[in-house]
Amino acid sequence: MSARLAFFTVFGAAAAVAAMGCSSSSSSSPPVRTPFAHLWKVTAGASASQEAVQGLEFYPAKLTIDAGDTITWSFPTAEVHTVTFLGAGQSTPPPAMDPNNAAPAGGSTYDGSVYTSSGFVAGGKTYTLTFTKPGTYVYYCVVHTPEMVGTIVVQPAGTAYPKDQSAYDAQAQTAEAADLSAGAASVSLFPYTAGGAHIAAGIAPGLLAGPSATSTVLRFLDTTTMSDSNVDVAVGSTVTWTNLANNEPHDVVFPVAGQTPPPSLSPFSPPSGGTTYDGTTLVNSGVMPPGASFSLTFTKAGTYTYYCLFHDDDGMVATVTVH
Fold it and tell me: H-helix or E-strand containing 184?
């Protein structure tokens, strides 16, 4: 188990609650309301290229339902997300690094009064919530705020729906394809010398000058493609990593050579190990928010594997070979 998953397990994983109802029928005109509550479906996040490219939206981002209806969110990627609705009097979600975010909160229904959250969910699991009161409810992935925000409009029970599930699915597919395409294209923005000693620890559309993008790349990059992130340097060389994603934290962790990071090491652990590495002592950059850099000097020949503890389960692992 990776250090990231071990950390998440300590704080709890969200369990899906039972869904009810049936899916709406497809029609070229707005469906007619039936006397039964409906079950709707939304996808939280998307990915491509072996989890390297991530879409950071709810697909679809806005859904109109009726009071009494239920929504099930699916979480198809290894990247952790939440479905988080605020309670009465709350104007902003908790900060991304609040450890309480990992655990579910509230119950299986929502009326706008109680803070309700899936907690951390990933890897094909689901989360289900029934809406009992008309209103317009904004919700968040607290891991990826401000870019990953959705809206649920709840109409009075018995109101005709403006769209059916198939229309929302088509809308979601278009948005997902656009996000994943933009994320993949951002690799071409790599600003350093290809094959050099300056590595991008993640990258996103717009780089650091842009607003938080709705897609990102979870890879260490040493060129303008995702095909090879491994680096060759001479003994005594210094390698620098810079987080070029405007929407994700990363870190750089070199465990003792031949080992993996210990499960007790969380992604939020403070920096440790210093600024030189010979394979005998773990080195941890600590959390690298967007724009942050970390440099490490290699004093002994060898091939060393390193990790982003936030995203090693997504494949954010690479090597430095020192000659």
Answer: helix 165-185
